[in-house]
Amino acid sequence: MKKVCVFLCVSVAEKGSIMNRKSHWESIYSTKNPTQVSWYQQRPEVSLEMIERTKVGKAANIIDIGGGASTLADHLLAMGFARVTVLDISMAAIRAAQERLGPKAEAVEWIEADITEAVLPARSFDLWHDRAVFHFLIEEKDRRKYVEQATHALKDAGHLILAAFASDGPTRCSGLDVVRYTPEALQEEMGGAFELMETTRETHLTPSGSEQRFIYCRFRKR
Ligand SMILES: C[S@@+](CC[C@H](N)C(=O)[O-])C[C@H]1O[C@@H](n2cnc3c(N)ncnc32)[C@H](O)[C@@H]1O
Question: Mind listing the pLDDT tens digit for each residue in 82-94?
Fold first, then answer.
């Protein structure tokens, strides 16, 4: 299995909060069936449609931030995308995705890391996808680091797709507070290095039958 080594350089206080974040997600994925978590999608339709609209070629280098046990990687491989990376803070989530994919997991690059601290190669990705990860960054310093990471790791004119709870969406997810967004607020967070190309809404039906309103924004790095 291909694996990227990640080196962290953070203060003791920051390390503590990252470990709390990590143990939270390890515990979720160690105790729950990935098809029963509220964010589960059998087919991430809106993400796949937005990815198609970027018109990136099949050789595009795509990274799914906080991909966890999402089926996005399965669908991308099936569509012929050959360079797919999944980054997640939880190794249990990554293992669940690898087990589901079986031998096809070899075709994916897996990174176990916190996105605010991961060491990513510069200007290497054509497309950055994040569904339901950025909205957990409730501290401004973490959101700033996230935007720095995307700016650093995306190629010029690269695409960034961000899905977060909408302003009329839930205030919490997986027992954690989230920040809810309008497209304008997400553009504000991403800053001048990113241009908003399109936005859409989705009402996600959780496995237990409740509705969660999401917004999806597609940005292009200037
Ligand atoms: C709500 S789930 C969404 C999973 C997936 N994107 C999907 O749509 O099915 C949030 C995911 O982000 C991961 N995560 C949370 N905080 C993270 C962070 N700071 N860095 C990397 N991954 C993180 C969790 O382990 C979890 O897999």
Answer: 999 999 999 999 9
